[in-house]
């Protein structure tokens, strides 16, 4: 669901794993999960 991206440090890697778990288990509609995924991809593009 998310694009592959390079994570440079431990905090980025940890946040990515936690966000992926939240995205899978959080009770939300498919549209809301897709919006959250786009939001995370946008955050990673700001480097």
Keywords:
single chain, mainly alpha, 47 residues, flat, 0% strand
Strand content: under 5%
Count the domains. Answer: 1
The outline comes out as flat
Average pLDDT across residues? 78
Number of helices: 2
Order of helices and strands: HH
Question: What's the helical proportion of residues?
Answer: 55-70%
Low-confidence stretches: none
Determine Rg (CA atoms, Å). Answer: 11 Å
Major sheet size, sense and barrel closure: none
Q: What's the layout of helices and strands?
A:
Blueprint: H1 10-25, H2 30-44
Write up what this structure looks like.
The protein has 47 residues and is mostly helical. The chain has one domain. The protein is 66% helix and 0% strand. The longest helix has 16 residues. The radius of gyration is 11 Å and the shape is flat. It starts with 9 loop residues before the first helix and ends with a helix. 2% of the residues are buried. The model has no long low-confidence stretch (mean pLDDT 78).
Summarize the structure.
By secondary structure, the protein is an all-alpha fold. The protein has helices spanning 10-25, 30-44.
